[in-house]
Design a protein that fits this description.
It is a single chain. By secondary structure, the protein is mostly beta strands. The protein has one domain (21-166): Immunoglobulin-like, CATH 2.60.40. Helix content is 0%, strand content 49%. The protein has no helices and 12 strands. The strands form 3 sheets. Strands 5, 6, 7, 9, 10 and 11 form a 6-stranded antiparallel beta sheet that branches. A 4-stranded antiparallel beta sheet has the order 3-4-8-12, with no helix packed on it. It starts with 9 loop residues before the first strand and ends with a strand. The relative contact order is 0.26.
Length: 167
């Protein structure tokens, strides 16, 4: 199989094509019309030969001020697999997380799967987005307890809410 340099597939050292994919932060800042801070994460993947569908799973991770490690944060709608429509060539998944509190850093861990007919996994990959730094206090905002459902961190405090959609 010949792949030009501009092809979205990149050759691995074994000669088998490796999938082109990305995990990015599209926006990190004060939430418009909502309390707190928000981050928008984007996962993108390209189809592989033989794959009937693709799927992504997004996990929100948090590193609190003074900590060295990131820990998963539960957010409604995150953590499950989001499938593409059959036979698409490019699959993008956008996850917007709101009501983030600081001081903390947030990032998304995005798992990618290419699926054969019947759901067998042909290939899997994982990427982390860059960090979204949330300051200790966001000037001019107050937390609204009723605005959105809250997610819970490992310590059980309210941390984030999610709105996600496939593109």
């Amino acid at each position: 199989m010949f792949l030009p340099a501009s092809d979205p597939l990149i050759h691995s050292s074994l000669g088998a094509p490796a999938p082109a994919l990305s995990a990015r932060v599209l926006r990190c800042g004060k939430a418009a019309g909502a309390s707190g801070w928000s981050a928008t994460f984007l996962g993108q993947m390209y189809a592989l030969e033989g794959a009937q569908r693709m799927a992504m799973r997004v996990t929100l991770e948090e590193r609190q001020a003074g900590s060295r490690t990131f820990t998963p944060v539960y957010a409604p709608g995150l953590g499950g697999w989001h499938p593409s429509a059959p036979s698409v060539r490019v699959f993008r998944y956008l996850a917007q997380v709101t009501s983030l509190t600081g001081p903390a850093d947030y990032r998304a861990l995005i798992d990618f799967r290419w699926l054969a007919l019947g759901g067998r996994v042909l290939r899997a990959a994982r990427r982390r987005t860059p960090e979204c730094a949330v300051p200790a206090a966001v000037a001019g905002t107050r937390r609204s307890r009723a605005a959105l459902p809250r997610a819970r961190s490992a310590r059980g405090r309210a941390r984030a809410a999610l709105r996600a959609r496939a593109l």
